[in-house]
Each structure stands twice: as structure tokens, then as C-alpha cells.
User: Fold this.
Amino acid sequence: MAIHSDAFDNANILITGGTGSFGRKFAKQILTTFKPRRVIIFSRDEVKQQEMREDLLDFSSRPMRYFIGDVRDRERLYRAFRGVDIVIHAAALKQVPTAEYNPLEVIKTNILGASNIIDAAIDCGVKKVIALSSDKAVSPANLYGATKLCADKLFVSAGVYTGPKDTRFSVVRYGNVIGSRGSFVPLLIKQCPKGKIPITDERMTRFWISLKQAAQFVVMCIDGMQGGEIFIPKIPSMRIVDLARALAPGCQHEIVGIRPGEKLHEVLLTQEESRLTLEFESYYVIKPPPLNSRWNADHLNGGTPVKEGFQYSSDNNPAWLSEAQLFQMMAEEDLLH
Assistant:
């Protein structure tokens, strides 16, 4: 899928949760590669916004805007979305233990917030909205995953009730992000000096992607999306124990057991979804449901239907991350010191 710069040049682009790890990387990607009219950061924390301003001093002459707001606040979203062409919805409460202890708060942000995004985007005439999902939304084993599954369903179906408006909604689903705030890799590096690393289960596997790769994939999907698709990149797997050996050589492994809400292996594409899935060279696309096929789907030409019963999981993945590739990804994210 070739990327056309005219999709981003002179466009007004808004990122919800824009001060998070992905939002920062995506904003840099857009500012470095394209010439947007505005890049708008929509988030709740003014301190993180100030930190982002300082981090993006090299782009101080570029059209950055910062909105304090919460996706729970419909009125604020309507104000922020005026004149916006593209929305990247990255705001979410995503810590699994936090979600289990504060279920209603997570529902308000991840599900009702998604509904607010959809209504504001349609009513304000936004052209494209792409929502970031998670492998935990697939056959969810915890509340966070269940809220992301609900949000995915809302975005995939949103095109059904746009009426005469042509706002298009799609979803990007990927695995664990190396270097994102609160993820396993920074925790591992922090624990290394103690000489003991907590390991849940020696068999556990996970999908891995760098922030840079995630941002580039989302750019590609925004450019090519028609509405209702779920885009899934082909990314490598690695066993947690191998990751620990690479990043903390010589450290003792303390087996602590799988925590509530965790899976032994993650899944990005289920057997049930395989019936609607097309495979491309570097990604999969779950086609929109029939009720949502309002748009020209030429971008799906060239895709090969996967075999019925196919499942894309971290333990049956043909691509495995080597230590050299792991360190290369970490170097891209400035995680090697």
C-alpha cells in the first residue's frame, strides 16, 4: 500500500491521548515526513503537554496545538474536532490491574469515550478516524481487553450510521510495544541491577513492535483506509524468558506465575475472524462487515484470503525476534544506554 503525502500535507490532524508514548512518536513522524496544517494534541495532563512541547522544540516553528480535554467530555471533543481532517484515537486506560480495580472508570473512558469520539467526528465532518486497539481485545481475558473489544466493535460499525456524512472509521490492532511507558521492557531494565527478574511463565510468548514501526504502520493505514477495516501488521514474537536473558544476562529468574487476566500466548487474529481476513505481504486486513461496505474497496485488491481456521497467535508465528533484531528495535527507541 503506497503512501500518498497529499493525505497528510495541509491536513489538520488530531491525536487523542497525544502525550502518550505512541502520540509523541506519531507526532514526530508526521512533522518529519509531511507538511500538515496543524497537529493537535488532545490529552488530560498539562504537565505531560509541557514536557511534549520541550521534547518537540525542534518543531517549534511548526503548527502544533495543545488541547486539555478528556474523551469522556463530549462538548470538549466537539470544540477540538472543528476543522479537523484526521483523528488518531490513542487515548485509553490500559493498565490491566487498574482496570480490574476500577471497572466503571475504564468503561467510561474506553467505551463511552469511543462513542463520544464517533459522534463528534461525524457531526464535525472529520474525514478519517483510526482507533488504536490491542491484542488484548482478542478473546479478552480481562476487563481492559473487553473494553477495547467493545470500542473496536463501535468503530468498525460506525460507518453504518454516518448518514450523508462521509466520515470513515477503521481500527489498527497490534501487540506489545517495545519502549512504551509501563511496558515490560522498561520494567526489565529497571529490575536488572537487583539481579533478579520476575518471570510469569517460561512458556509465555508475546508479539513485539517498536513505536517507530507502529507509527509508520498507522500512517500507512490512514492513507489507505476506506472504513470498517481492522488492520493487523505482521510482527515477530519472542518468548518472555528469551527477552529477559537478552536484556538481563546473568540475572536470576523468579517464576511468579501468570497473573489474573493474563494469557500464556497472545492472539491478533482469531479463527472466527479468518473468514473475513485478507493477507498482504506485511499485514492482514479484516474486511468490514457487509452492512458497512459503503466505500470503494479497491485497496483490498491483491490480498489473499487466509485459510479458514487460521489463527495468528504469538506461539504459532512464523517470525521470531532474534537478540540482534531486539537490540536494533531498542536502539531505534533510544532504550540502550
Remarks:
- The two ends are 35 Å apart (CA to CA).
- Residues 103-124 form the longest helix (22 residues).
- The chain has a mean pLDDT of 90.
- The CA atoms of residues 4 and 164 lie 26 Å apart.
